[in-house]
Write a structure and sequence with these properties.
Layout (H helix, E strand, L loop, with lengths): L5 E2 L4 E3 L5 E3 H5 L3 E6 L6 H11 L2 H6 L2 E7 L3 H8 L6 E4 L4 H5 L16 H10 L16 E5 L4 E7 L9 H11 L4
Parallel strand pairs: 4-5, 5-6
Antiparallel strand pairs: 1-8, 2-3, 4-7, 7-8
Helix pairs in contact: 2-6
């Protein structure tokens, strides 16, 4: 697990557009919230993306950029998520970046379910989301990292269940309590 003041892992990443970039080039000189979400086919992931996107203007005003990483290939992510304006979306089909950041899948289906999982799935369905094209690990758990302008991990949150993806506002409150940069 990565915790405060650790150097962020780097590497070449594939973006939703199909182009590639170095992760440090995406984050250097900027504060970033880096979300590791599940497979883009997961309705919980799609629902989380729709809720997270509402925070893009607020984050921009605070000088914080949003980066999403999905455990999916580019084609599946494009079909499942559609356009995601104003943010970088990393498509990590192999899960290499997830492993580098210590974001591991649950050992089995039962271990990734929490007391609110079925309720979260029902909310996602009510919002109109349906399961998409699978391309990643169905047991992948989510995580969020606050990355400093010097490419260090300032704070981290590792999800314990499939729906355990805090919204940016919750992350900022949690992380600002422990981090002097916010």
């Amino acid at each position: 697990m990565l915790t405060g003041r650790m150097e962020m892992p780097d590497g070449r990443v594939r973006l939703l557009s199909g182009s590639t970039a170095d992760l440090t080039a995406l984050t250097a000189g900027k504060r970033s919230l880096l979300y590791f979400l599940r497979d883009s086919a997961c309705i919980l992931c799609m629902y989380a993306v729709s809720n997270i996107l509402e925070y893009v203007p607020l984050l921009a005003k605070q000088g914080i950029q949003l980066i999403l990483c999905v455990n999916s290939n580019v084609q599946a992510a494009q079909e499942n998520l559609g356009p995601v304006p104003g943010i970088f979306v990393i498509c990590d089909e192999t899960g290499a970046l997830y492993r580098d950041f210590g974001v591991f899948p649950a050992p089995n289906q039962t271990a990734m379910e929490g007391p609110c999982t079925l309720q979260a799935i029902a909310q996602a369905r009510t919002a109109g989301f349906v399961h998409g094209i699978d391309s990643g690990n169905p047991l992948q758990l989510p995580a969020v990292f606050l990355i400093g302008p010097d490419c260090t991990v300032r704070n981290s949150y590792y999800g314990k269940t499939a729906e355990d993806t805090p919204l940016p506002g919750d992350c900022l409150r949690r992380f600002s309590y422990q981090s002097p940069i916010l």
